[in-house]
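Collaborator request, handled under Task 6.
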Amino acid sequence: MKNLFQTSAEPLSKKLLGEFLAIFFKNEEILVDKKVPHTRFKVDYRIESLNLIVEFEDPKVFTNPKYTIRSEITEQTLESMEYFVVRIPYFIQLNSENIKHYFAKFLHLIDKKECIVNDFTSYPHGFIDSRSVLPAAFCSMGHLRYTNHLNKATDNVFADTNESLLSQMLEHGDVGTVFNLDNPNTFEFLAFIFYQSNQFDDLPHEYISSLEEEFEWLCNYYNYSLDDWKVDNILHHHSHEHEHGHDHDHGDEEEEIIYN
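Structure tokens returned to the collaborator:
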């Protein structure tokens, strides 16, 4: 059997997402940057025959309230029209696991006797590049959207993304550079990140000490005691949330533009 994709080492982008769709849905007409019929919403990619809409969420969806609200309204409206909406944020990559996670409903379109659904991108999940737009730059609604993405993500995405933020904090030497400390959701994420770091037995002692100092500072900043660090609740919340997916069917007709 052959691999379905030639794996890219680049991080996911709108362009790469389009290339992925052209291969995965090679027998379908893909409309690009077109308005959805009977709406005022233009979407990145639409496959009318499958009632499928796929969008790439770049950093402005999380940093600019105007775009955050637009994304929320667009998604709610299109789902009410029975479209299946997939939105992939810039910090999550399309490896094999995520392809099956986001596009499980359409895996039957792939001939498993001929092809293996391999990684489309090999770039790591999370905020890897030194120029990455970090959660500190997110608006309040954008941070909530970020939280929702992670809660619905796979365990590996959740862990890898948090690990990348931990690395960014240690690199910058300043939690406030990575997270907006005035956001009420920040402490929960930081608590989980620090919890996660303690699961790595191979971390050097000075690394752990630095984390403990950071976490103690955070507790003081939020006026919490260590008893407020309810890790079990955080873990339970994530394991419950990420199991909930979505499934829809239906659509309308429109113009033609084929991505292939």
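The cover message to the collaborator said: "Residues 51 and 251 are 5 Å apart (CA to CA). The beta strands are 2-3, 31-35, 42-47, 52-57, 84-89, 115-116. Please let us know whether this matches your experimental observations."
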